[in-house]
Amino acid sequence: MIIRPITDQDLEALYQIAVESGPGFMSLPNDRDFLKRKIRRSVDSFTRAATEPGGESYLFVLEDSETGDVMGTTGIESSVGLRQPLYHFQHSRQTYRSRDLNISNHVEMLNLCSHYTGCTEICTLYLRPQYRQKDYAQQEQHRQYAGKLLSKVRFLFMAQHPERFAETVIAEMRGVSDEAGRSPFWDWMRQHFLDMDFATVTLLAGSGNSDFIAELMPRYPLHTHLLSPAAQSVIGEVHDKTRPALKLLQNEGFVHRGYVDPFDAGPTVEAKLTEIRSIAGSTPCRIELADDDQQLEQVSDSLIMLANTSVKRFRAGIADKALYHPADGVLEISHALAESLQLRQGESARFLQLPLSGTPAMDAVFAVPADKEQIHAR
């Protein structure tokens, strides 16, 4: 499996992902023309010599190295809300008191805002259903890490190029909706504010047409006790299929501070760029090609995710075997792995240690002696 920047040739695969993901996956609307523009914007962003976040969009795909099939996609928006406002509801609690009557009342409310303007957003994480199946993962053991690779690869890219991204990183999590694409939260909003079905409104928002939010959505505090019980129950909750992605981000240090999507009330989580665990725990290194791949023996407690340091020709993947020399900052890898990641002898790279399934998390930097030590990637 290899992560690489998306290209124009990936349009059909991206369209199929947009169809499969269904309503509510707003970053990939089911619209070929929009997706074509999204790909082109990403291609331009990867070739831009950016020194600060300026609205660039980086879209990656996960490719099956054996078949060339696109298994999934993941992305980063360097700074959101600059071209079009990024709206959220702030979910908060207000306390009303009467000293004379000695009475107090606590009221939860939703306030429309654009709190995260200028922040970096990680987005568009989707692993196609056929690659989530156990029979696929069992063909090669490292394939079970496809979802983690899609999620964490963004942090390796950001760790290597921090100047391209904002101090605060956010992720909008998909809210609760059923198989037919109906959202309990939006059902109530539709009845009282905007008579438009959930699929249409998310398509408009995902396509960048967000003016209607400010024009037609409630501008004043909306007391949540006025909502239906079904709508109230999903505020800040995630779609069942989004729970694994949320758990991964929580393990990275992302937290929810009360901001939710205006359509399905899914939570937005945030973290400081330098405090994201995979960024702080990633290790820069220099590549050395092994004379004999047999020397790259495996160990049983960890694996690594490895990426080159390029922008335009970025590649990342999970190695089968590697040998780290911490005293010299050298990572010894096979010729085959180097070729797949477009790495040459002496070039810089960055890796991240990952615990294997069922093992305790390891320290971010290896606690090993100065002589040769093995690290394992499955």
UniProtKB/TrEMBL annotation:
This protein's record includes keyword Transferase: yes
Keyword Methyltransferase among UniProt keywords: no
Gene3D superfamilies registered for this protein in UniProt: 3.40.630.30
One Pfam family, short name: AstA
InterPro entries: Acyl_CoA_acyltransferase, Arg_succinylTrfase_AstA/AruG
Keywords assigned: Acyltransferase, Arginine metabolism, Transferase
Record PANTHER family: ARGININE N-SUCCINYLTRANSFERASE, N-SUCCINYLARGININE DIHYDROLASE
Protein name: Arginine N-succinyltransferase
Organism: Marinobacterium zhoushanense
Source species taxonomy: Bacteria, Pseudomonadati, Pseudomonadota, Gammaproteobacteria, Oceanospirillales
Gene: astA
